[in-house]
Structures are given as C-alpha cells and as structure tokens.
ABC transporter domain-containing protein (Amborella trichopoda), 357 residues
Amino acid sequence: MAKSMVSTSSGLAPLPTSRNSLSSLKSGQLAFPSHRICSKRLNSTGRCEPPVRKIVCACTAPPRNWNDGSAIQFNDTPVSEVEHLSREPEDDSDVLIECRNVHKSFGEKQILKGISFKIRHGEAVGIIGPSGTGKSTVLKIMAGLLAPDEGEVRIRGRKRHGLISDEEISGLRIGLVFQSAALFDSLTVRENVGFPLYEHSNMPEDQIAELVTENLAAVGLKGVEDRLPSELSGGMKKRVALARSIILDNSKEAVEPEVLLYDEPTAGLDPIASTVVEDLIRSVHLKGKDALGKPGNITSYVVVTHQHSTIRRAVDRLIFLYEGQIVWQGMTHEFATSSNPIVRQFASGSLDGPIKY
Ligand SMILES: Nc1ncnc2c1ncn2[C@@H]1O[C@H](COP(=O)(O)OP(=O)(O)OP(=O)(O)O)[C@@H](O)[C@H]1O
Ligand SMILES: [Mg+2]
C-alpha cells in the first residue's frame, strides 16, 4: 500500500480537470465528493513549510472530560473529583484539533449545545451516540465544512475562522470519509479511487492505476476497477470511498500530519468486511502497521460508529454524544463496564433507560 502522503492544494470538492477522463464528469454531479481537505502552513513567499512538530505521545494521556458540567461523569467518577485527584499541568502541544464550547443549530433545532474536546497526536478516537444526536455534524465542523454558531475550532492551537480554506495556517490536513459514500456517479471505480492523485499529483496514470488496485485490495475488493458506482452494492461503495480516502502519493515525503475522520465506515458491511475495514483503519494509523510491518501515515483519526466491533477493534478512546452534549468519555475498555446509565443502555441496546426513542 502507498505509504507517503499526497499533497493536495485545494480546499473543498476539487473540480475535475481536463487531464484525463475525469473531464467527462458533467457539472452538477459533484455531490460533495471531496474527502481530503488540505490546509497548509505558508511562509512569506507562499511556499508550503513543513509544520513544526512537537510531539507528545497522546495515547497514554488520560482521557479527560472537557465539558464544564459538574454533573457529567468520566469513568463513572465525577469530573471534578478526577481533576482534583490527578490533574497535572496540561501540555497541549500535541493537540491537533480542539473543539471549544461548540454550538450548532439547524433552524430552530439546537443540535450541539456546547461541546468541547481535543484530538491529540497519535490518538484513535471514537464518537458514539444515538442516531440524530449530531455525530456527523461534529465531524463536518472539525473538517471545516460547517462553521459552528458559537464556540471555536482550533487547529494545532490556531483558531479557524469560518470554513476551511487553502489559506488556513494550520499545518494539518484533515480528510473526511462521508457517511454516504459520495462517489462520482459518472466515474469508474478506478477514477473515483485515483481521483486525489489524478488531480493533485504528477504520477503517471499507470502508476495511479496500480495504486488504485492495491488500495482496493486493502479494502477487500478485486476486479471492480472498471465498474461504475451504480454497479456496486452499498457496502462495496463504502469500501471504494474508504480506498479513496487512504490512497496516497508514494512519490512524495510526508510533511504534515494528517487526521482522518471516518463517518460510520463499517455501517452496512457484513462482519468480515467490517473486520477488514477496522484492521485497515488501524493499519494506516502511524501507530499501526501495514502488511510489510511499516507504520501508517495517518497521525490521528476519529471514527463515528454504532458498531461494537468497530468500537472494540478500531479505537482507543470514546466520546459519547447525547442530546447535543458529551455525556461520557473514557477508554474503549471502560465502555463495557461503565455504570453510567446512558452508556449501559446504549451498550446493551435496551429500550429501558434514559435514552428515549
Ligand atoms: N444540513 C442540515 N440541515 C438541517 N438539519 C440538519 C442538517 N444536517 C443535520 N441536520 C439535523 O441535525 C441532526 C443531527 O444530524 P447528524 O447527521 O449530525 O446526526 P448523527 O448523529 O450523525 O445521526 P446518525 O447516527 O443517524 O448518522 C438531525 O436531526 C439532522 O436532521
Ligand atoms: Mg451520522
């Protein structure tokens, strides 16, 4: 699998160019397919500078509840108690993305009611919670596709103003794998998966085609390169979208950390396909290893999921969202044993409990 990073320069949905058959894409068919969103640190000459990396291993950092609510539980112990007992001076030099008191409404409907959390260098974080609670909205806000109504998003310590843009001085690339596959309907699987490289690299087409085949194989797909999305099952489309999110320009050296946000990557997949995807998500992480034993390039990732297998296999820390607030945070292994009634109900799927449908 390709292991170095593609350096993209556009912001949202990259438009196809005339470089190749992508030019056949009709306008109006760009239903927001971009998955890799780039922002760069620019120097005074407009050149891209390597980011200053000050890395503190994040995975061993204890999870904290950054919400202000004193009633909110962390590891089933009140936050104030945890902080009183164990709080150390915070080192935020490894924080890549921070949401601070983020609010978001759609019309009259308040979806996010002041959520705060940090994604640190090296972390594998899951966001869980009932349907319609705002998980996808959080990912879009982190990716810079939606702006919060109140509160702020900080990228490597710098406040983002509005939506993501090429000018953003952040030194962090953020990719989003949409809940719906968001493939280009009129492009083949090969063109869809190779899209970031056709658009943003100088790689020859046969090399891109080779990488496409490798990345499709990594998500368990073979011989589908020439098919159109309409000729694939829902689960296959999902895996094609995933292959597109991890394809990287292996002719370049990685210069910036990258965070991938996966929105329900295993929803609709059979158990074995889910395992393939969960292992793939781990293997592209810098703390993971590919088939050759090399570490992956994704610095940190966030996975929104409802699936227990994905929670168990693909993430280390969990954030539980309910009714627009973070109601619980903890390590994955603490999820199953938590006595928090919301967590217990969610974990067991019971109809009895505080979550009402
Ligand atoms: N662009 C939008 N315009 C209006 N309402 C929206 C928009 N996006 C999301 N919503 C509403 O915001 C709420 C949260 O949506 P969101 O997609 O974030 O939920 P979710 O937690 O991801 O749910 P699921 O688990 O079903 O995917 C829903 O009530 C949804 O209808
Ligand atoms: Mg969603």
